[in-house]
Amino acid sequence: MNSRARTLARRTPALRLLLLDVDGVLTDGKIYLGPGGFELKSFHVHDGLGIKLLQEAGIAVGFISNRKSPLVALRARELGVKIVQTGVANKVAAYEKLKRKLRLEDREVGYVGDDLPDLDLLKKVGLPFTVRGCPPELSRVALYASRRRGGEGAVREIAELILRELSEPRLSRRKKRRT
Ligand SMILES: [Mg+2]
């Protein structure tokens, strides 16, 4: 186990809230624009189930996006995601406010981001994640980069990693073996 995996294993039990960037994490980053500002994005059903499984395990999930889009609220409603912040100019400021409101600490929060505007928030949270194809600045900070790309099941992969860590913590397994 490398040091990032060890840190991830050590910090995961404290996780209470996983925040997800939308474009490039829950989607492939493409935005289909039509006349009059008509907009389409595509979400992956596998991510949807991953989000449901996290919620069932007692971990809240939230969406946070710089762009304002009614599609994000629509997808959130489908998945029972109640924390939805769109049109956010400064993600760190929005996060600090949310953290105070929910009485959470940095160590209890995870974030998945795919691009440079996510970097500062990734540096704050206890569990920073990124996705395949992200800029190197992000992979330097993240504890885990998904093998799958955004919109292609990256969130499902990260959800499964978290759930695996909660159900069979690798650190305690190691400890048990030693005794
Ligand atoms: Mg993004």
Q: Could you walk me through the main structural features you see in this protein, from its secondary elements to its overall organization?
A:
The protein is an alpha/beta fold and 179 residues long. It has a single domain, classed as HAD superfamily/HAD-like (Rossmann fold). Helix content is 44%, strand content 16%. It is built from eight helices and eight strands; from the N terminus they run H-E-E-E-H-E-H-E-H-E-H-E-H-E-H-H. It has helices at residues 3-11, 45-56, 70-79, 91-102, 119-124, 136-141, 154-167, 170-178, and strands at residues 17-21, 32-33, 39-40, 60-64, 83-85, 109-113, 127-130, 144-145. A six-stranded parallel β-sheet has the order 5-4-1-6-7-8. A two-stranded antiparallel ribbon has the order 2-3. Strand 6, helix 5 (119-124) and strand 7 form a beta-alpha-beta unit. The longest helix has 14 residues, at 154-167. The structure holds magnesium ion (MG). The site of magnesium ion has 6 residues, from loops. Magnesium ion is lined by residues 21, 23-25, 114-115.
What tags apply to this protein structure?
single chain; 179 residues; alpha/beta; Rossmann fold; six-stranded parallel beta sheet; two-stranded antiparallel ribbon; 8 helices; globular; binds magnesium ion
